[in-house]
Amino acid sequence: MSETPREAGQTNPSLLRLRQAGTHGKVTNIELFFDLVFVYAVTQLSHTLLHDLSALGALHVLLLFLAVWWVWIFTGWITNWLDPERLAVRLLLLALMFAGLLLSTALPEAFDGRGRVFAGAYVSMQVGRSLFMVWALRHSSLAARRNFYRITTWLVVTGVLWVLGGLHEGQARLACWAVALAIEYLGPAAFFYVPGLGRSTTGEWDVEGGHMAERCSLFVIIALGESVVVTGSSFAEGVRSPEAWFAFVVAFVGCVAMWWIYFDIGAERGSRSIRESTDPGRTARLGYTYLHLPIVAGIVVSAVGDELSLSHPHASGDIAQVAVLLGGPALYLLGNALFKKTVNHTNFPLSHLVGLGLLILLAWPATTLSVLALAVLTSAVLVSVSAWETLSLRSVRRALYGTAQE
């Protein structure tokens, strides 16, 4: 995250995107190609959580998920300013893609024998990308370069902790990586303050809002796609009993409801809001960098719940399984509610609040229900929320899409 130089034309030759009033930069094919690595990363995360539903296992996956999201969203910010059609930028994205693939392969054993691979890949992506941006802005304003001096300083400091964690094992690794992540997540909130270099302001982060909104929407699609893959694979590998068919339909309906809650009008409203914002940097930092975290996390956890309902439909849910089946939809609704409230400057959506309340109420009888029964109820909550929001915001839909879309 940083300031795009206002004097972009000073770069010779410029590696920055050309901006035109009234339009937003398109997501390029190389950016979509780069995202393919994160399809694999999300799959690795959900499978890792499924194989270890203990509290420690969940903590490990949470930390790894935060790292995966952070390395992706930082790249999203960079490509918001850089022109991916330039050869140097393409080579950067391909190098990041290779490192991201190494990172993804190490995810299941990041806290075992592949910690060094994970840490090395992560640090090379974070620091290497930031150094590239310093070079790309070498002819730009001092303010623009100072932003990336600050960011690089923060990432070098945390990089030391990542490497130290990779060299240690057990709780020492967890502690080093947790502190590193905490510092990195604090960075944007602290405006990357560095003694002697000062700090940035959101007004200086000249982000192209439409591109940022589209990039984050595509990551939500990646996560939903992984959910579809999990559902299809589990159903294909299992016995085609009536219960399996029913669980398959329930999982699909729940996935559709998730798509509807975010994409029916939420994604477009968010895109328009950031495009029209007087301070798009602030909206991008809070609404897209931070508040998309629970949205994507909710999809990943829900995918694990879908696999549980397909593989063990009649089992009584233990505490860990209940936490997955209720926690995934709850995270998703909470993330969507906070995102919509922030970018649209509205109240907390009532439909989402009621949905969260229903999920909390389900926690009381949850351990007495079968996994499939609980999956049915959580999917029903998601469908209800999507239907409620669609009906209550018909006037907003007409304003966004016109009566032809009704």
Mean pLDDT: 89
Could you describe the largest sheet, including whether it forms a barrel? none
Percent range for β-strand residues: under 5%
**Share of helical residues:** over 70%
Q: Count the strands? A: 0
User: How many domains make up the coordinates?
Assistant: 2
Radius of gyration: 22 Å
Determine the number of helices (DSSP H or I, runs of at least 4 residues).
15
- N-to-C span: 38 Å
Low-confidence stretches: 1-12
Element-by-element helix/strand order: HHHHHHHHHHHHHHH
Which structural class do the helices and strands define?
A: mainly alpha
General form: globular
Task: Chart the SSEs and their pairings.
Layout lengths: L28 H23 L3 H27 L5 H20 L8 H22 L5 H26 L2 H20 L19 H29 L4 H22 L2 H11 L3 H11 L1 H20 L7 H26 L5 H13 L8 H22 L1 H8 L5
Helix pairs in contact: 1-2, 1-3, 1-7, 1-11, 2-4, 2-6, 2-7, 3-4, 4-5, 5-6, 7-8, 7-9, 7-10, 7-11, 8-11, 8-14, 9-12, 10-12, 11-12, 12-13, 12-14, 13-14
